[in-house]
Design a protein that fits this description.
Radius of gyration: 27 Å
Number of helices: 13
Number of strands: 30
Structural class: alpha+beta
Number of domains: 4
Largest sheet: 8 strands, mixed
Helix content: 25-40%
């Protein structure tokens, strides 16, 4: 367990973490007092929440026909709001987080599992409304519960609050851009100049920090996997430890993974089963009630495929022996319920196998997250991993505070930052060209074009790599490569697209191979009017002048966000311009 140090700042501060989940969300925070060891707390009271409710609220909103949010979070479970929504035809928006998923082929396969988004609403507006609601909730909670004067505290720090937003492993780039935009619209920060107060953390790193702060004992140089099983996704991150106690740090030793196989897919499998079973019967109208009960109760209680499971939905008079319905409950064979879990179990096992293959020193797996409460998931993974002989230990890390593991861990990540390296998930570079070589088979296949400025024969679609995937990166490490642009006139501005490759080619070299796996990670631009441009003459016509602008592209990956810079020299002085967050 790590030992947190006293806050070293000179004035009071506040860190707030929003765990925006697929179906439920949570908030944690820490008040920073100079010289005092920070303590992580959770918001445990929300508007319209049932007294004694949990520290999580539904990721659900109701909108009227004008696109105005009428109920959010815990408010959507209020009987009064539910009745009003039905009477007035409000639109229910849920699982909107899934629309932020990366547009990779793997995630696109699951598009049928993502609820349709109302055409009258934008994702940005929904995100902003929900974040605005979370901000209102944490503000009220701090004002009412933090002693001696929470209201005074909020006023004193509200323009300096650090917000930490968590997300599944690998949901970077466009997710960060969308959430930053929504954070500004929601009033978390007031303008673009304050966006350095918005930080991001993967759910894998947040879960690691939660485990360490809640008694996880890890030996020196031990390889571990954190398997965060949530509602929408199953995230895996592999780490190796260094040091112990207050000096412990972790190094990411394999590319993190995000599988679309969370517990919501188990519930969806149960829904399809019930819809098929009850289609055309008097009980077809009760499917929604059955699914709700299964999701809340039956799914987590299931533990033996030889025993049937029961779903309650009605009263004593609801009976049909041919459908296995007696006294208002439907009986489902355990073997059928086990099949509901197959997608999740298979995805988790395959991901663990890949992680162990990439990092053979892994000895333990720690299962965390809301889905970790499923005894069937736990037992199946443990049994299969023992048969495979991949790891020595498999732990289910469940504590009384596990339902706020990600939000608590996100605050801890900001305060403690126990991870000092990460592993690149993709390859990054620029699309460029190569000088034509007549004897090069790759060049012969593609042919050449003539550069009208230089007269040079060139092969298009070359991929110039700046950072290869699966490289271990220190948090302050930079990756740099030199490029140039040619033009008929002096350039005042340059702009380059950083291309991300997510395919299976180990050393990608051409953007026309596996072309669908390339995407623009970000565009970075710079004012280069003060650069010393090289003046050159076209060959063989020496009277034609053109200009060559030389610059470097720098990628900075840190531990959370990806950033890019264009750099150049003015005389003997190196300058950097146009820092961009990856989109």
């Amino acid at each position: 367990m790590s030992t947190r140090k006293p806050f070293s700042g000179s004035q009071r501060g506040l860190v707030v973490a929003f765990d925006l989940g697929t179906t439920f969300s949570g908030i944690s925070f820490s008040v920073l007092d100079p010289g005092v060891v920070p303590r992580i707390q959770s918001v445990t009271r929300f508007p319209d929440q049932t007294p004694g409710g949990s520290s999580k609220i539904p990721s659900v909103l109701y909108y009227d026909d004008k696109g105005v949010a009428r109920a959010i979070g815990a408010e959507t479970q209020s009987p009064v709001k539910i009745e009003e929504a039905e009477d007035k035809g409000w639109i229910k928006v849920e699982r909107f987080k899934m629309h932020l998923r990366p547009k990779s082929p793997a995630s696109l396969l699951d598009s049928k599992h993502v609820p349709l988004f109302p055409p009258s609403l934008s994702l940005s507006a929904v995100l902003a409304d929900y974040l605005r609601y979370l901000l209102k909730c944490v503000k009220s909670f701090i004002e009412e519960t933090v002693l001696p004067d929470g209201a005074k505290l909020w006023v004193s720090v509200e323009n300096r609050i650090i917000f930490v937003l968590s997300h599944p492993n690998g949901w970077e780039g466009s997710l960060h851009s969308s959430m930053r935009q929504a954070a500004v619209e929601a009033g978390l920060v007031t303008n673009a100049d304050d966006q350095d107060r918005i930080h991001f953390v993967t759910e894998g790193k947040a879960s690691l920090h939660f485990c360490v702060n809640n008694g996880l004992e890890i030996g020196e140089n031990e390889g571990i996997i954190i398997l965060d099983a949530g509602r929408g996704t199953i995230d895996l991150s592999a780490y190796s430890s260094s040091g112990s106690g207050e000096t412990i740090t972790f190094h990411e030793i394999s590319r993190s993974e995000c599988c679309f196989a969370g517990s919501v897919f188990v519930t969806q499998a149960a829904r399809r089963y019930l819809e098929d079973k009850l289609k055309g019967t008097q009980f077809e109208r009760d499917v929604d009630t059955m699914v709700e009960y299964f999701d809340r109760t039956t799914k987590l209680l299931f533990k033996d495929s030889n025993d049937p499971s029961f779903i309650k939905f009605g009263g004593r008079n609801d009976n049909d022996p041919t459908l296995n319905i007696r006294a208002g409950q439907v009986k489902i064979p355990g073997s059928d319920v086990a099949r509901f879990f197959e997608r999740s179990v298979k995805a988790a096992l395959e991901a663990i196998t890949r992680q162990c293959s990439n990092a053979p020193n892994i000895t333990s797996v720690f299962l965390v997250g809301g889905f970790a409460a499923s005894e069937w998931l736990w037992s199946q993974l443990k049994e299969e991993l023992q048969l495979l002989g991949l790891i020595q230990f498999f732990y289910c890390f469940i504590t009384p505070s596990s339902n706020k593991a990600v939000s608590d861990g996100a605050v801890s990540f900001h305060l403690d930052c126990l991870v000092d390296t990460r592993v690149s998930r993709s390859t990054y570079g620029l699309g460029t060209y190569a000088v034509y070589e007549a004897n090069n088979p790759e060049h012969q296949i593609r042919g050449y074009v003539t550069n009208v400025l230089t007269g040079e024969l060139q092969v298009l679609n070359q991929y110039s790599v700046i950072l290869q995937k699966d490289v271990q990166i220190l948090k302050a490490q930079e990756f740099r490569a030199s490029f140039y642009q040619e033009s008929a006139t002096r350039l005042n501005n340059i702009s380059v697209n950083i291309l991300k490759y997510e395919g299976i080619i180990e050393y990608p070299a051409w953007t026309d191979e596996d072309a669908e796996m390339y995407s623009t990670a970000c565009t970075v631009a710079a004012d280069v009017s003060r650069i010393s441009h090289k003046t050159l003459r076209r060959k063989p016509w020496n009277d034609l002048i053109y200009y060559k602008t030389e610059f470097d592209v720098i990628l900075l990956f840190g531990l959370t966000e990806l950033k890019a810079q264009i750099a150049w020299k003015e005389g003997n002085v190196g300058l950097s311009r146009s820092l961009e967050n990856f989109r």
